[in-house]
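Fumarylacetoacetase-like C-terminal domain-containing protein: structure, please.
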Amino acid sequence: MRFVQYRTGATGARQLLGVLSDDGTKVSDISDRYGGDLITLIRAEPSLDEVKAAASKVTPVAIGDVELVAPVTNPQKILCVGLNYSGHCEEQNKPIPKEPMFFSKYATTIVGPYDDVIAHRISDQIDWEVELAVIIGKKAKSVSKANAMDHVFGYTVAQDISARDWQKQRNGGQFLIGKSMDTFCPLGPSVVHKSLVADPHGLSIKCSVNGVEKQNGSTGELIFRIDDIIQRVTESITLLPGDVILTGTPAGVGMHRKPAEFLKPGDVIDSEIEKIGKIKNKVVADA
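Here you go.
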C-alpha cells in the first residue's frame, strides 16, 4: 500500500490523505476516516485491511488531477546518518566509521516530490544527496536490533540538500544551518508501506542533475543498516510515529567531484529508489 498526501482544485488549500491504486494511476481519499495527514493514520495503527476497506468506499480520482505534496509533514524529528555508504566514505578518503554519525534537519526543510528547491543566496555550494528515508510506525525506546524493524511503517525517497560552505566552513563546522535551510528536504512521491519492500537493503538508488547521472548505488552498501540505526538511536532518543530517518547517501555528490559541482538556479534534480519511487525538483533562485 502506498500513501500520499495531496490537494485538489475542489479542496483548495486543504490537504487530503489518500491511497494509490496498485498501478499508481488513481488515488482514493481516506481523509474522512483517518484525517488529512499520514501521521494521524500511523498513530491510529489501523490494519491494512481496514485502510483498504475505507479506500474501497470512495470513488478514486486520477493521479493527474491532484497535486501531490510531501507524504509526511511536520514530523517531530528528522534524523540523518552521515557517512553511511562505503562509496561515499571512499570518495572523500575517510575511513569506514565504527559508529554512525547522527545529525538532524528541521521539519521546515520538507517540500513535496515536485516542489522547487531554493538556492539560498547565502550559499554558493548547494549539493545533492539522494537517500532512502524510513518512516517510524510506532513509539520506539530502547529497542533491540531484533525488534527494530517492527517499528518501521514504510519508506520514501528523500533529497538531503546540503549547503556545503555552511556545513563545513561556516557555523563552526556544525551541520545544522547547512542541512536545515528551507526546502532542503524534498520527500515523496508516496510512503510505501514496509509490506511491499521485502528487503530495504537491496534497492538501487540513483540521482541525476539535468539528465546526467551523478549517483548510482545500492542500499546494500549501507554501513549501518536500518535495524542497527534504530537500535542505536533509541538507546537515548525516543522515536515517535511519523519520525523520519534519512539513512545516508551513496557516492557521487557534487562536493567530491573533480572539479567540484554545485547546484544553481534552473538545475533539475531527479532522485529515484527502486520499489519506492521517483521525485523531481527544480532549483530556483532565492526570492
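Notes: The first strand starts at residue 2 and ends at 7.
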